[in-house]
Amino acid sequence: MASQVIAQEIVTLAVVVPFLLYSLLLANQGKRKGEVLLAGTLAYCLYMYATYCFVAVYNPFFLVYVVLMSLSFFGFIITMYGLISKRDTLHFSKLPNKYIGYSTVALGSIILLMWLGRLIPPLLQGSTPSDLEHYTTFPIQALDLGIVVPLAIIGGIAFARKKNLGYLLVPVITIKGIAMLLAIDAMIASMLINGISIDVVEMFVFPLFTALFCFNLVVVMKNLQEQKI
Description:
Elements: H1 2-28, H2 32-55, H3 62-84, H4 97-125, H5 139-160, H6 164-193, H7 200-223
């Protein structure tokens, strides 16, 4: 577990923090792309530090996690409000809406099936899932199933249908997804280095989706028409 957390923190320091600073710079320059990138990056930070607050064993950094979670939450709300309150919505020159929309739905569906595949069989057998370990419940699975999956599916369908809701949600979900997938890729690499067994399918599926969503983000940002805020 420690090696996985270390790998995730390396991704945070090497990728997420520079990306956060870059998006802040663009947003402060009045660029729409900056706000979109900032919202997605803050969504990842909120998710990550919420899991640290509710999953990680108590340690001297607990209050730091709480502060970072709070800053990420209010920063995300303020940024999204700024996007939603604009008189004109996001505009794109040309997009493969169905491809990007339904690939987002596919990611949400895979997360849904992955967690249900681990939770439903023990439930039917009347036993406790082995993944529970020393925890009393599944907070990460609750966040994914209750928030991430519905947002990915609803946002993806709306994007495929060229709805404003999809234009707001999918870029945020894509950026958050890339950061999370990079963290998972780092965890997988760390587990392999430390001789920890891992599902072969997961070893290939997660890096594949990382590349897919990086491509999607490039396409979306390239075609987002820049307007002064």
